[in-house]
Design a protein that fits this description.
The chain contains 14 helices and 6 strands. It is an alpha/beta fold. The structure holds 2-acetamido-2-deoxy-beta-D-glucopyranose (NAG) (6 copies). This is Sulfotransferase.
């Protein structure tokens, strides 16, 4: 094949020389071809260098040039500030209000439903719920990216979508909804698009387990007049749901708690280079200043946030597990023993 090609080149360029010094000609032609090839690579690289001195800078100039030249943005904030152009509507007078992208990363029954209603009570924030709860939106990375693009372009419509004056847009994403599975690609997306992560976990994983079992039970039992509810809005409803006391399998209890704990550790490690904040449900319950911290993190104007949701399980955990004494015995001496003692004084 190579020999054929050289003969071909020889025939075109040096029809006569070939008779006298075939080897020298071949070497010469080879050297010329190599030289041209190396030269072309150099040219290509140089133009690349000239084209993208700093991609970020160009993006920013673009954004400012178009419409929002006067928007003041601090240097370190540049990657996190966006001016989306939704397809479905115009941002009108807020077209130059910067928008921040966020995601609430959490686990089921860790207070994220309640937390999201608190955030959504802010006039400038839209958190669109558990959009990756639906399997078909997380079958592969390309469909995940497509969904994310839609949300962050303000083109995702849910009951939480606000108006053109949203200053922060996001949703909540459970660890087991494709986030761990595609963590590399998703982490890359978060960094590329300047997404902020709000980690929300629960310290007391035993209470989380009780809530998981109670919620799973209610899916079948439908204690509230035949409808299943994961979150409630009155103390009466909370009381009805809390009346169910699950029995925990003590054989697998410790390994389940450890598994959950390890998953949280992994998530924190995998996404640690994305801009983030770590919150715990228990801290928000007892310290509302945490909500100010969240608003500052998203650079939102501070507001008093409210939720109509009512906590389902209150009081000491001993009254919430039917085989509490076995559970107590099982956890004694383990690192999870303190889960038995903490109480909410609410
Ligand atoms: C990704 O999943 C979506 C549906 O969830 C499907 O329509 C699409 O064909 C899939 N793409 C690839 C590359 O598998
Ligand atoms: C928040 O929303 C209000 C009302 O829609 C709007 O006037 C204001 O400019 C928005 N603030 C930000 C920071 O976008
Ligand atoms: C069931 O419905 C009745 C009548 O609508 C209402 O009074 C009652 O509070 C409901 N019970 C629960 C547990 O929601
Ligand atoms: C507890 O879990 C183990 C392992 O899955 C299972 O073999 C056992 O039957 C369970 N015990 C009860 C009481 O359900
Ligand atoms: C409440 O939260 C704020 C913000 O994170 C923190 O600075 C403060 O120390 C907390 N207060 C208590 C009593 O933990
Ligand atoms: C929030 O509520 C507190 C007490 O009710 C009040 O002092 C404060 O001014 C309110 N802050 C805002 C931003 O509305």
């Amino acid at each position: 094949m190579a020999a054929e090609m050289f003969t071909f080149i020889k025939d075109i360029f040096v029809p006569k020389a070939s008779k006298r010094a075939p080897l020298r000609t071949v070497v010469l032609i080879f050297a010329v071809v190599c030289g041209l090839y190396i030269f072309s690579i150099c040219i290509k690289q140089q133009t690349n260098i000239f084209r993208q001195p700093n991609p970020l800078q160009i993006q920013v100039i673009d954004r400012r040039n178009r419409a929002c030249r006067n928007t003041q943005i601090e240097e370190e904030d540049i990657p996190y500030v966006h001016f989306p152009k939704p397809e479905a509507f115009s941002r009108q007078e807020c077209v130059c209000n910067p928008v921040r992208y966020f995601v609430i990363v959490s686990m089921q029954r860790s207070g994220s439903g309640w937390f999201e209603t608190l955030l959504n009570s802010h006039i400038n924030l839209s958190s669109n719920g558990e959009i990756f709860g639906a399997q078909e939106r997380r079958n592969n990375v390309s469909v995940i990216y497509k969904t994310l693009d839609k949300v962050y372009n303000l083109d995702w419509f849910s009951s939480a979508s606000k108006n053109e004056c949203s200053a922060a847009v996001g949703f909540k994403w459970m660890l087991n909804q494709g986030l761990m599975k595609y963590h590399e690609e998703i982490g890359e997306y978060f960094k590329r698009r300047g997404v902020n992560i709000i980690f929300l976990f629960r310290r007391n994983l035993l209470r989380r387990m009780v809530s998981l079992f109670a919620n799973a039970y209610d899916k079948e039992a439908k204690l509230l007049n035949g409808t299943h509810k994961s979150h409630v809005h009155s103390p009466h409803e909370a009381q009805v749901l809390a009346a169910y006391k699950p029995t925990l399998n003590t054989t697998v209890l410790v390994s389940h708690l450890r598994g959950t704990e390890q998953m949280v550790t992994k998530a924190l490690k995998w996404f640690k280079s994305t801009r983030h904040i770590v919150l715990y449900y228990e801290d928000i319950l007892t310290n509302r200043t945490k909500l100010v911290e969240v608003q500052d993190f998203l650079k939102l104007p501070r507001r008093n946030l409210t939720s109509l949701q009512v906590k389902i399980h209150r009081g000491p955990i001993s009254g919430q597990i039917s085989n509490f004494h076995d559970v107590q015995k099982t956890l004694k001496g383990t690192s999870y023993e303190n889960f038995l003692n903490t109480d909410y004084k609410l």
